[in-house]
Amino acid sequence: MRKMYRVRVQILPKEGVFDPQGQTVKGALEKLGFEKVKEVRLGKLIEIVLDAEDESQVKERTKAMCEKLLANPIIETYQLLDVEEVS
Amino acid sequence: MRCAVVVFPGSNCDRDAFHVLKNVFGLDCHYVFHGDTFPPNEFDLIVLPGGFSFGDYLRAGAIARFSPVMESVREAANRGKFVLGICNGFQILTESKLLPGALLRNKNLKFVCKDVHIKVVNNATPFTCLLERGQVLRMPIAHGEGRYFVSKDELKEDQIVFQYCDERGNVTEDSNPNGSFLNIAGMTNERGNVLGLMPHPERCCEEILGNTDGRKIFESLITYFVRRQEHEAN
């Protein structure tokens, strides 16, 4: 029986890749008085709904999507945040 | 020299490139739609034009890279045909891994539209054979994602073709419009037949536009092509 799942993937700029958006947000937070902010990095959150046999197949397919299209390994890292069954 | 200009959904410099190849240089030029393919020997030069292919969604060039036409471009590049990626075309070439590195949001987060100076670092390519090493060209740029990034192990120095510089050819931080690594404005592949650059040579090929520095790139290509043909005939 195939089930429907919702998976969320987080994509962030790699360590060592300058992130001007993160820097700008950090600057804004500091100006608002949040002076203990050490670092801000800005990325993307991608939510995908797909049919699959089980959770491990969801993970496998999402990983393949990340490697092929969703993330560029030269500049970004990706992480599967969570998988949840939906009806 | 038979030329193709690829048209992606969201390309907006395709007509400028076509106009220059056809009307300024008198070349046999054709549009190729992104969903089409072509035999590898069909064109001697393939231009991937500027614009915002597929809305630049996800990452600039990331979706265009999987267009059917890109398989043909890859095969043509493997056979030594010339491939020129301008602006969004450069982004598509890096996403396709036809060129090393990646292009990121400009350091100052602004869309930068102005004339810049670039210096010829490598004149041993078909695209720069009529230029001197160190020669300074003025060209317009218009991009929001032009910050070239490449890891040190991936970079081979002779693949750098153009660097942003000041009027006199000094490569300085002030003359770097987008925060590119080593002021890189244009890169070639190891073989030298694929060039990607952020500046727009097709926008400065006619005197009426006030600048003809872009001509030198197309003239270099044409000269190289004719010489190679003569060489092959002998």
CATH topology of chain A: Mth169, Chain: A
* Uncertain runs of chain B: none
Counted beta strands of chain A: 3
Radius of gyration of chain B: 16 Å
Mean pLDDT of chain B: 97
Question: CATH superfamily membership of chain B, which one?
Answer: Class I glutamine amidotransferase (GATase) domain
Give the overall silhouette of chain B: globular
Query: For the residues shown, what is the average pLDDT of chain A?
Result: 95
CATH class of chain B: Alpha Beta
Order of helices and strands of chain A: EHEHE
How much of the residues of chain B is beta strand, in percent?
25-35%
Proportion in helices of chain B = 10-25%
Separation, N- and C-terminal Cα atoms of chain B: 19 Å
The CATH architecture of chain B can be given as 3-Layer(aba) Sandwich
Supply database-style keywords:
heterodimer, A: 87 residues, alpha+beta, Mth169, Chain: A, three-stranded antiparallel beta sheet, 3 strands, B: 234 residues, alpha/beta, Rossmann fold, nine-stranded mixed beta sheet, two-stranded antiparallel sheet, 4 helices, 11 strands, 21% helix, globular
Secondary structure layout:
The complex is a heterodimer of chains A (87) and B (234).
Chain A: E1 3-13, H1 20-31, E2 44-52, H2 55-70, E3 76-86
Antiparallel strand pairs in A: 1-2, 1-3
Chain B: E1 2-7, H1 14-24, E2 28-33, E3 45-48, H2 68-78, E4 82-86, H3 88-95, E5 102-104, E6 112-120, E7 136-143, E8 147-149, E9 160-165, E10 184-188, E11 194-197, H4 215-233
Parallel strand pairs in B: 1-2, 1-3, 3-4, 4-11
Antiparallel strand pairs in B: 5-8, 6-7, 6-9, 9-10, 10-11
Q: Would you summarize the structure shown here?
A:
The complex is a heterodimer of chains A (about 90) and B (about 230). Chain A has about 90 residues and is an alpha+beta fold.
Structure characterization notes:
- The complex is a heterodimer of chains A (87) and B (234).
- With 87 residues, chain A is an alpha+beta fold.
- Chain A has one domain: Mth169, Chain: A (2-Layer Sandwich), CATH 3.30.1280.10.
- Chain A contains 2 helices and 3 strands.
- Chain A has a 3-stranded antiparallel sheet, with helices on one face.
- Chain A starts with a strand and ends with a strand.
- The mean pLDDT of chain A is 95.
- With 234 residues, chain B is of the alpha/beta class.
- Chain B has a single domain, classed as Class I glutamine amidotransferase (GATase) domain (Rossmann fold, 3-Layer(aba) Sandwich), CATH 3.40.50.880.
- Chain B has helices at 14-24, 68-78, 88-95, 215-233; strands spanning 2-7, 28-33, 45-48, 82-86, 102-104, 112-120, 136-143, 147-149, 160-165, 184-188, 194-197.
- In chain B, α2 (68-78) links the parallel β3 and β4.
- Classes of the chains: A alpha+beta (87), B alpha/beta (234).
- At the A-B interface, α1 of A face loops of B.
